[in-house]
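**Polypeptide and fold**
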Amino acid sequence: MSTTSSTDNPGEFPQEPRPEDGTRRSFMKQAGGILGLALAPPFAGPAERLAAYSKTVEGVTTMQLKVNGTVRSFQAEPRVSLLDALREYLDLTGTKKGCDHGQCGACTVHVDGRRITSCLTLAVMNQGKEITTIEGLAKGEELHPMQEAFIKHDGFQCGYCTPGQIMSAVACVREGHAGSDAEIREYMSGNLCRCGAYPNIVAAVREVQQKGGKV
């Protein structure tokens, strides 16, 4: 008689044994969020792992996020992504929702000085961190050097991807990855532009880097 292991069906999550009693059932429900991440198969991408985790979390909690230098509080379910928290709860709609799978870069923000795709991280996991969105780059009416360069070089057409492009461009210069057009294209490759404004975007990044603009 042949047996079939849980790994014989690569498109499915491993099945857990049935709970033996009420106590075990209660424990598994409470620990579901952690186990959901720990047991997720290695072939699952970040978006799939986040979705699996979000299904196990219930209830509403109060969160505090420090965004653009200001600490703001709101109530939401723990499964809310940082992207949705910014847009739906804090009204910072400059950060755009594109693919919602971390593949287009439209939702790029800075967390503790590093660029991330905000759709692939939970808001609750970013409490106590320094978050910067596109709204936090300008100083009042004074645009950030990268914003000025995008306008000068016409680095956008429809403009939907532009906030994420600018946030990644700033990080690209800060990281020291703007030494050549090829290097800029490589380190900006996570940000997609359906309008095809890539040459203009590269030109904007190069100008800021060459001028030694503070970013």
Residues 28 and 140 are 50 Å apart (CA to CA).
